[in-house]
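User: I'm putting together a small comparison set for a docking exercise, and I want a reference complex before I start. The sequence is below, and the ligand is P-hydroxybenzoic acid. Could you produce the 3D structure with the ligand included, as structure tokens?
Assistant: Of course. I'll restate your input first, then give the structure tokens for the complex.
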Amino acid sequence: MRAQVAIIGGGPSGLLLSQLLNKAGIATVVLERKGREHVLSRIRAGVLETGAADLLREAGAGTRMDREGVLHDGCHLSSNGRMFHVDFKQACGRQVMVYGQTEVTRDLYEAQDAIGATILHDVEDVVLHDLTGTPHVTFMRNGVAGRIDCDFIAGCDGFHGVSRRAIPEDRRREFEKVYPFGWLGILSRTPPVDAELIYASHDRGFALASMRSAVLSRHYIQVPLTDRPEDWTDEAFWDEFRLRLPPEVAARLVTGPSIEKSIAPLRSFVSEPMRWGKLFLCGDAAHIVPPTGAKGLNLAASDVHYLVEGLRGFYANGQSDGVDAYSDRALARVWQAMRFSWSLTTMMHRFPDASAYDRRMQDTDLAQIERSDTARRLMAENYTGLPY
Ligand code: APR
Ligand code: PHB
């Protein structure tokens, strides 16, 4: 096969990139290891920055989001049961769109089908070739060997993909921080506990009350890395969740059976550069954030924005300055989101090795956000998304 851009990975990064490139008249092929239902079965975060929501609309995949998504003006922060509100709209004039990533992925698949985009599912043994020369990709599918000759390759294959590792190890700089705890998350057909999200810092551990719709809740509690989902009955989860929420919130919590229960580890990770010859990395293939700031999908969106801009310039008038600037431009915004996700995680969680002084710094960080318009504005600008 021949494509201008071969895209490895059919998650949010790969699909959004394919959709925007095809709308710009640039031909792509998406190679996805799993089947579509498997990709759609993944439960992930549900908060979209303004930029990501606008990109989905530009991609022609924003209609259901605008119909079913909910715009939030702010969120609540609580510390050992005492809660206060952070009004993003008042602090920086922006909001966030609450809309599940599973729905985003479903909308992108539908938009891709509508334009007849080429997505090959169930591919195996994807290998990237000749990245600094004339690139091509080989793979196996249903026992048949395949090959795509292309101008460029986009590595959108996530943290465990093959693309990042196609960059010579001695040319990669990796930065990683692993957190000493995980998040136990459940999905339940229960009404959200509040109109907006509640991030709760508590001596028993962090908790987050989120949602997918008016009848679907998504909640998390910080747990030790040694915990497994089967260690937690629904009842044990709800009891612990209540203890970490402000009492007035816990009192109105409606519980129900979990329809999904999983534990995610927390890590901060960046691999530089995000470009090697004709290969560009987007999304989780290049960086991982702890879920605290809900930046994973949003960073994938800004990476895609920068790459589409560069490739449009290349194909429209042969200019390579956009693609040459891609890695530095994307990384500048990635590191800002890395800092925000790390700082919110550090402020809101209980660390096993924390000193009494560390605990005071956490309380003081929270107090600053409650009392200072400047601190609140900095949080609001980062949470709703820095400009592209
Ligand atoms: N060949 C083909 N496809 C692959 C390969 C491979 N070798 N390895 C992984 N994939 C596919 C995975 O099956 C997955 O569908 O690449 C896709 C990568 O998708 P994500 O991991 O979702 O990463 P990304 O698209 O960058 O989205 C980032 O989604 O998973 C969340 O937390 C993440 O919010 C972040 C956002
Ligand atoms: C979610 O709804 O899954 C979610 C929301 C906000 C976060 C993390 C996860 O910061």
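The mean pLDDT is 97. The radius of gyration is 21 Å.
User: Thanks, that's exactly what I needed.
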